[in-house]
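Ticket #4471: structure output looks truncated?

Reporter: J.K.
Steps to reproduce: submitted the chain below (149 residues) through the standard prediction queue, then opened the result file.
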Amino acid sequence: MKKNYFEPILGFITLIIAILFLKQFVSVNTADSNTSTYNLQARFLKAGGIMIGNDVKMRGVKIGVVSDVKLDKEYFALIDFQIYSKIKIPRESNIKIASDGILGNKYLSITPQGDNLDNYLEKSGEIKDVEDYESIEDQVSKIIFLATQ
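Returned output as attached by the reporter:
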């Protein structure tokens, strides 16, 4: 009986590649515990699908991660997020919930505003300039309303 070594070797190589892909997937989707962060928060009328673990971006660059989403005493959506320590957020910044494409993940988008970009938010600070989330349904209804006038 002739032994076939090709199939076990191919299976072993496939297993190694699968383990490497799994390791890469886990490392990309977990927060780096070595990176120091500080907490900020914002209050929204509608959280719009933001979940723990979603990205926080400034001008399209990831600068942090959403750490908690809950209701406050006045029933606003209170979103806590962590920002990498090397990034300073100007006090006069705008924050909104954006999405990657039509059906993409939601993320918090921070945009610095104003002329005084040297005055930064402190740890556990709150961004006051908030743009509330508009779902696709809200946007389509606005377009239809404008088209009928």
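Triage note (M.O.): checked the attachment and the full token line is present. The chain has two helices and eight strands.
Status: closed, working as intended.
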